[in-house]
Amino acid sequence: MLDVSDDVRAEIGEEEAARLIAGDSAPGSYDCTSCRAPGDPEQEPTSTVLFVGDETAVLAFAHASCLSSQVVQVSEEQLQDAVRTITGTGERAGVPVPPLGVPAPAGPPAGAPAGPATAPRQAVLGVTCGQVLVGDQLHPALVVEPTAPIARPGSRGTSDEFLPLLIEQGFIPVNDVSRAPLPIAGWSVLLAVGKLHAILQPGPAGGRQTSWWQAHQPLPVTDEWRTAANRTHTVHVYAAPAGTIGQQPREDLLREALEKAAASGVLVGAVMPLAGTS
Q: Per the record, where are the segments of Pro residues compositional bias (predicted)?
């Protein structure tokens, strides 16, 4: 009951794919790389998920109901962090990825209070996890806010181009938080080993996805957030300019800040597939 996608086959080779499907190299049991619950490829549909770093690759397994079989491109730091989490040998902090090509210094983990940028026109993307009520259902959400204004790459100007840059990438202005944003093509949210790793954007020239934002170290999410994400297989991602939302300690305050931003016309959003799907 093991699914090996064409993309995974291309990476590992037909011989290894055949061995997996035949059960020769498949695990007898596994912890799902998305929800972390136990799985058994002989008893339930299982997906192979290949995480590919700069130098190494790791084959993981997931419930087919949580993830489809796929190749997920991650940084070598992210990959090593995932391996350490799986093997229990500890975690190492990663390096933040600059937004849309703008250089960024090291900063706080996602969801932690954001410090000031260390140089002019440099910024770190802060990410806060929460749930938003749309209709009568709670949806997992990420709120992205830079620590400083974002200039257009190559520009010498001082205006904040964060929202225009995102709109050019396919994000849509959000005027009403009670309505779901529209899906965006090529972007996704990587939840692996039960933790938030990255927001992935389309690769150049239609290539593999690359990290737009990545956690300094994999970010634990609440059981409620992960349950909602595994139920919908999507994440609502909102973004606002520096100083708009802030680090809100409660979800009701986060919702209030989002509604204010939407009313002021400074909120964009998109619905992204969960866990690196394209």
A: 96-111
| Model pTM score | 0.62
Domain boundaries, the chain: 2-73, 99-273
Tens digit of each residue's pLDDT (9 = 90 or more) over 1-47: 889 988 888 888 888 888 888 887 777 888 777 666 788 888 888 98
3-class secondary structure, 218: strand
Residue 74, CA atoms < 13 Å, CB-side half-sphere: 36
Cα–Cα distance for residue pair 136/272, rounded to 1 Å? 20
Q: CA 188 to CA 171: how far, in whole Å?
A: 13
Question: How far apart (Å, rounded) are the C-alpha atoms in residues 268 and 240?
Answer: 7
Token pair of 194, please? 């039960």
CB 78 within 8 A of CB 214: yes
Burial of 90 (0-12, 13-18, 19+ CB in 10 A): exposed
